[in-house]
Sequence to fold (441 residues):
Amino acid sequence: MTTWWCEYAELGSGPLPGVRVVEDAGRILAVDRAPAPLPGDTRLSGVVFPGFANAHSHAFHRALRGRTHDRGGTFWTWRKQMYAVADRLDPDRYLALARATYAEMALAGVTCVGEFHYLHHPPGGGSYADPNAMGEALVQAAVEAGIRLTLLDACYLAGGLEGTGHLPLDAVQVRFSDGDAHAWAERFELLRARPGVQLGAAVHSVRAVPAEQLPVVARAAAGRPLHAHLSEQPAENEACSAYYGSSPTRLLEERGLLGPATTVVHATHLTGDEITAIGGSGTTVCACPSTEADLADGVGAFRWLRDAGSPLCLGSDQHAATDLLAEARLLEGHERLITGERGRFRPAELVGALTVDGSRALGWPDAGRLAPGMRADLAAVRLDTPRTAGCAPGQAVMVATAADVHTVVVDGRVVVSEGRHVLGDVGRLLTDAINPLWEGA
Fold:
C-alpha cells in the first residue's frame, strides 16, 4: 500500500488543496481531504492530475521530428519522407524507437497510449515468422517504458483514392497491407491482450480501405475500440465524393462504423451535417493540434463537435511535440484564432479530454479519474517553474508544459521521479534509435 499526499489534486471539477490518495495493487483505495501529509506519505508538490491518455500515436514518426522543415511542401510531400523512414524499420529498430518514444511520453505525464499501428510486414511485403512481430515490438516497448498500451491494429489495403478508384500499393505501402480485410482480420485475431495491453482495430482511412471492406473491420472490432483517420485533408474528401458520391463521414456512417465505440482522428474538414452525424452517433473525436498545425492540415470544428455530442480526446500523432498539455492548450488556442473568442474550452474540459475521455476512447474506462476503484495513474505538475510560477492551480493546464511534470505513476508504479524516467537518459535513447535511421539518407 502506498499513500501520496497531493498539494493539489484534480478531482474532476478543478484542483483541491490537500488530498491524500491511497493505492494498493495498482488501484486507488481512497481519496480523502488532508490538510497536511502524515508520516509515511509520499509528498507530491504542485497539481496532481490523473495520468494523461495519448489517444493517437504513430511511434515511428518520432524519427521525423526536426527533419522535415527545410523544403516546405504539403502533407503529401511530408508523407514521402515518412514512408522513407518506415522502409528502414525492422522489429528490433522498431522496438528501440518505440521504447524511447513511449519513455518520452511518460516524462510528459502520459500513462496510456493508443498506437495506431499499420507497419505490419517486412520491406517488400510478405510476413515475418511471427506475423505480428512489429506489433509485439510495440507491446514490449510499452512494457519497458512503463506505460499502458492500446494497440490499434490498422487495416491498410490501397495506395490511395482518386476520382476513378483506389490506387495500387507502392513499394513501401506493401509493408502495411494484408491483401484484404479478411486476411487482416485473421492476423488481428492472433494478437492477445495481456495486463497493461488492450487491443483495438483501426481503419487507416477511406483512402486506404475500400468501402466494401469496411464492415469486415467493424465486425472484427466488435467489443473493442475502433479508430479511423477521417477527413484530414480536402483532397481526401474530394476523391471520396468523386468516386463514391459520398463523403468519408457518410461512408463510415453508411457502413455502420460510427458510434460510441469509435474514435475518428482529425475530422478537420467537415460540413455542418457531418458534425451533426458524428456528434449524434456519440462517436469520439481525437484532435491532434500540433500535428494538424505542423502538416498544415487545418483547424477542426472541435467545439462544434463537442456541442453536437462527441467526446473529445487528444493525441500527439506524429510527435512534432510530445506534450499533451501543449496539445490541450493548442485546442483552445486554435479555437480562439478562428472565432475571436477566449474560453471556448474551460480548463476542466481540457483536463477531461486529457484524461477520462482519452482513457475511454482507448478502452480503459477504469482510468482517467482520481477516485476509489480507478487505476492509480498520477501525473504531478510543478507550480514553481518559470512557466507555472504564480499561476492559479486551476489554470495550470493553460500554462504548464511537459517539462513541468515531475512525477508519473502508472498502475501504482512510479515511472518518473523528479523528472527522470526509470530507463535513465531518454534523450540518449532517442538519439541512439533515430540517428541510424538517417545514415546515408
